[in-house]
Design goal:
Its EC number is 2.5.1.3. This protein is an alpha/beta fold and 213 residues long. The protein contains eight helices and eight strands; from the N terminus they run E-H-E-H-E-H-E-H-E-H-E-H-E-E-H-H.
Amino acid sequence: MRCDKKDLLLYAVTDRAWLGEQTLAQQVEASLKGGATMVQLREKHLDRAAFLAEARELKALCGRYGAPFLINDDVALALEVRADGVHVGQSDMEAAEVRRRLGPDRILGVSAQTVEQALGAEAAGADYLGVGAVFPTGTKDDADAVSCDTLKAICAAVRIPVVAIGGIGPENVGKLAGSGVCGVAVVSALYAQADIQGAARKLLALTREMVAR
């Protein structure tokens, strides 16, 4: 398996919105120290050279902590820095084409909001699905809501792991119990917090509890 279920338990997705005095690498390291199991670098506004340098730095950092490192959308850059994989949305490059470019050994994650999309992504070679937004979220303006029933239906329809995303935090992660997800992908629940390491540790424990129920 390119992607183990345990890697998806606490999936950290970066956002520069809350950097403050810290660098992105410092924030990501804090989340890894707290137990983040996978990291996705999501950048929309950096120029190519800065993005490349940042990706290389985070790849090395994740390597030290044994956490898979993925890049959002940018297949060419992921190949250039030898990232562990790529995550794409429904409006990005087709999953089958991403798999062709990545080859058989790297992780491919695909966003899905319907059972049809989920089955299509699985058939195209996805290793896991990101499904959401499961709760209201301010991080992604264009995130459509996915009901609990749809989340359960997607988990039941596919053989690959499913991770929930969107508005997830310590106050509501328990509501995902019994849905079939194997973990959560979070942004502000980690990177908007004053104590990122502590937030990661708490959310990891709550997610483990939720998945086991």
